[in-house]
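Q: Protein A?
A:
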Amino acid sequence: MGLRENKRVEDYLLEVQTAAGVQTYFDKKDEFDNSLAGILDPSVRTILRKQFNDWKDTFNAGQPLVEEYLGKGREKEIERVNALDDLSRMLDDPRFSNIRPQTQGVLREMVQAYKDYRKQQEVFEIAGGNADVIDIIKVGTLQRIRELSAFNENTQAAYMSIFSRLLGE
């Protein structure tokens, strides 16, 4: 499950060297995401996206190690998708059906909410849908999964380790 794994020295040094830059990047990204939350006008949202992308390009040019570190996020995303698949298989496995059935029910709802969001996202992207609509669906999904995660410590752990990152929180 990847719970215990030795970290390579190179990876550790990269994390240490980039910690401040990564924090700056995510602070700016959070600020950008929060600014989009209250704006429904597509033209204003487009301008804000362009401003953020311009800032990001300039920031990455001056912080190549941060860009490399953030690039490894793709690998982490694959790991999260694999963890989601593992969770789905576990929930579908009849051998585990009698272990905490209420928790499993909440986890199933969380998985289904995420899968529904991904289906809607794919449909909008194929149809050339507006990115703002996709953002609104994403926010609603994130809110729903966050509410479900309050059920207990297991659902909170699933939220923090899988869903929050898959949904870009």
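Q: Protein B?
A:
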Amino acid sequence: MKDKAVFLDRDGTINREVNYLYRIEDFEFLPGAIEAIKTFHELGYRVIIVSNQAGVARGYYTENDIHILHNYINGLLEEKGTYIDAFYYCPHHPDGIVEKYNLRCNCRKPNIGMVKQALNDYNIDLEQSIFIGDKEIDIETGKNAGIGRCILVRSGHLINESDTEADIVYDNILDVVRALKKI
């Protein structure tokens, strides 16, 4: 039997939007995010982060900085009895100044390389899964990957709700999980 998963964008979806976030002292969960992550697990979902991290290609921080932050995030979550199953990120950007990362890749959203990696690592049923993000690029990624439901949240960037491909729009991920509990 395949697992269902909730694919979450990171910045603006589970944590306060900070441009090029990499320092743990700048990290702050959005209200309700921890409860939502815990509830997703209770509802039988794997919780997977899918995040573009162009700051690596731009030379603002390193991949090691991302790993430190992700370990910190999971440490905070574990203190509250929950966790992120996996973190996937794309360090590339075609305008990057770090040569190793200056490229067009298949992992940068809206491409589906990070979702494909999750499929390689876990036995996921995409039709039963959900993609949640705060930008239209997140919705495009979910649609491109064939994920069952793609949900836009208002918790990060200013969005144009009249011109979204999202299946539905909620204020934040806690509202999403509350709606799922009612289904």
